[in-house]
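This is your field. Please look over both lines of this record.
***
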Amino acid sequence: MSKDFWNERYKEEEFAYGEEPNDFLREVAGHIPKSGKVLCLAEGQGRNAVWLAQEGHDVLAVDQAEAGLERAKELAQSRGVTISTQVADLFEWKPPEDSFDAVVAIFAHLPAPKRAQMHLWAAQALKPGGVAIVELYSPRQLEYKTGGPPVVELLVETEDLRREFESLEIMHLKERVRDIQEGAYHRGKSAVVQLLAKRAT
């Protein structure tokens, strides 16, 4: 999807994917080092970044859409927290290495070669002991049509993530079908792949 597409979506009155954090992130966030520095990739309107800031983390939210990050800052202000934001094309933007206690990528769907590159850079951005938290739609999602890219080329198998995060210790990696209620665009039974992985200390 183009930058213009996302800017238009994020200008809609309602938050496209809601104002609450992703369920999987909420489930595993206890693995993030306390008061850690967290990078949120393809963060859109900031629901995950703001929640992590509320949990005491120092958060950088990155997205290609300026409109999304403006809403993220508004959401942070309404919740009494501060986040940092950066407009960047994830096809090209490389985070600094050894800099984050966690990298969070929730529904950050890119074409396979670019996704692999983003995930490699995400793993390299972790400090020793840092964790990667990822949730993406699998090809089975095409049967449910309840959110995510409508083309198989942008969807992900568990083995893709195993390979792309092979430098980390994989703590959790599975495909599951779960109910997702995230705003107007992620709503209903959904097929997802979830990963929690850790860089060795």
Q: What stands out?
A: The chain has one domain: 3-198. The first helix runs from residue 3 to 10. Residues 3-198 form a domain with the Rossmann fold fold (CATH 3.40.50.150).
